[in-house]
Amino acid sequence: MGFADFLKNLKKDESKSTQKDASSHWIKCPKCSALMYYKEVFSQSHICPKCNYHFRISANDRIALLCDEGSFIEYDKTLKPIDPLNFVDKESYKQRIKKYEAKTGRPSSVICGEATINHIPLQIAVFDFAFMGGSLGSVEGEKIVRSINRALTKKQALLIVSTSGGARMQESTYSLMQMAKTSAALSKLTEAKLPFISLLTDPTFGGVSASFAFLGDLIIAEPGAMIGFAGARVIKQTIGADLPEGFQTAEFLLEHGLIDMVVHRKELKKTLSDLILMLNPHYEMQPILDH
């Protein structure tokens, strides 16, 4: 490599470093284009203080936001996907799993566990969009079913926080089977009269929205969350017509009766605890309210 190439690469490295440093301190709102100090947004639960835009947050941040401090106990964190089809596209499925495990520190797109929300115990499953777009695979389906079974055993409510692009294509039919598997398991909660609350966050699409995400006793969404099955571009190409303004936003779905509530992120914890307390007949209200 010549000296000119060396200088060129050095400038690229400096540019990348500068961009990385800037992104760690400043953030631009996708909705109002306001440029803010990152800590300002972080302190506001990752919400733009200018226009109320809800930024996407990680699964760990979501758990910290909703659950009482120190109450979350994770289960089934060692479950890992296999590669029954030996699937390869631009890279093998096994390589993708390793890459995203290194990126997120976990081998699947769902974190499941037990926690309390305002001292009320529940089972909780949270999708992580950073792991293969929060895609639903066989491990994710199994972890959700195990959460359902723990809710049945302990007579607790179940909360699933969804953010997903849909079924995981690398597992083909094995992934699609999780839609039926999780939906069938949820019917047991209905029979036991235990509440299942589905929280939809940005984005929730595909096989997740076509199965358990829309089977909640209550379906709640964050403001501005994009929710649907196929993307707007695909739908427009299919039907050959322009779509209504705000199509597939949480507010649009609420207006058309597809979800029950749109709740501001800062109000989620109290709203969830109040709803679970009202819906679960196994909780005695007075001892919990005394906390």
Descriptive labels:
single chain, 291 residues, alpha/beta, 2-enoyl-CoA Hydratase, Chain A, domain 1, 2 domains, two-stranded antiparallel ribbon, 11 helices, 9 strands, 41% helix, globular, disordered C terminus
Written description of the protein model:
There is one protein chain. By secondary structure, this protein is an alpha/beta fold. It has 2 domains: 19-55, no CATH class; 57-289, 2-enoyl-CoA Hydratase, Chain A, domain 1, CATH 3.90.226. Helices cover 41% and strands 16% of the residues. The protein has helices at residues 3-25, 38-42, 59-66, 93-104, 138-154, 173-191, 206-209, 232-239, 250-255, 268-279, 285-289, and strands spanning 26-28, 35-37, 73-75, 110-117, 120-127, 157-164, 196-204, 218-221, 261-262. The chain has a 7-stranded mixed beta sheet with strand order 3-4-5-6-7-8-9, sandwiched between helices. The chain has a two-stranded antiparallel ribbon with strand order 1-2. α5 links the parallel β5 (120-127) and β6 (157-164). The longest helix has 23 residues, at 3-25. It is globular. The model is unreliable at 13-23 and 286-291 (pLDDT under 50).
**Residue windows where pLDDT falls under 50 for at least 5 positions:** 13-23, 286-291
State the separation between the terminal residues, measured CA to CA: 68 Å
Largest β sheet strand count, sense and barrel closure? 7 strands, mixed
Q: Return the CATH class of the largest domain.
A: Alpha Beta
Rg computed from alpha carbons, rounded to a whole number of angstroms:
21 Å
Helix amount: 40-55%
Percent strand equals: 15-25%
Number of domains: 2
The CATH architecture term of the largest domain is Alpha-Beta Complex
What spatial form do the alpha-carbon principal axes imply? Answer: globular
- In oligomeric terms, what are we looking at? single chain
CATH homologous superfamily assignment of the largest domain: 2-enoyl-CoA Hydratase, Chain A, domain 1
According to CATH, what is the topology of the largest domain?
2-enoyl-CoA Hydratase, Chain A, domain 1
Widest sheet, order of strands: 3-4-5-6-7-8-9
